[in-house]
Specification:
Elements lengths: L1 E5 L5 E11 L3 E15 L2 E11 L4 E4 L7 E5 L2 E5 L3 E3 L2 E3 L3 E4 L3
Antiparallel strand pairs: 1-2, 1-7, 2-3, 3-4, 3-5, 4-10, 6-7, 8-9
């Protein structure tokens, strides 16, 4: 699972699921949805929704710097995130978003 955070006057969170490994340095990813709640005025928390695809497959090269991120666009990269397990259930880290623009 990959997470990107970007924005100027607001914080946008996007999630991507790795759907295929293509050799040693390339992956196929797809944008996925998020489970999101508003926690204040134009702010909230979200977590990824694995398997809920919202975009077409994209091929991306894995960073040679850290081996755990890919460049999504000129202004944003997506980094690997890991769930923890609570009572046998995968629990994803919660991210904070804002929508001030």
């Amino acid at each position: 699972m990959l997470r990107s955070s970007w924005g100027y006057d607001q914080t946008n969170i996007d999630y991507y699921e790795v759907t295929r490994l293509l050799g040693k340095s390339m992956v196929e990813i797809r944008k996925i949805g998020a489970q999101s709640i508003e926690s204040g005025h134009m702010t909230g928390e979200c977590v990824p929704r694995p398997g809920h695809y919202t975009g077409e497959p994209m091929r991306k090269t894995v960073s040679t710097y850290d081996g755990q991120s890919v460049r999504i666009a000129s202004y944003v990269s997506a980094c690997k995130i890991e769930p923890c397990e609570v009572a046998g259930v995968k629990v994803w880290p919660v991210d904070h978003w804002t929508a001030y623009a």
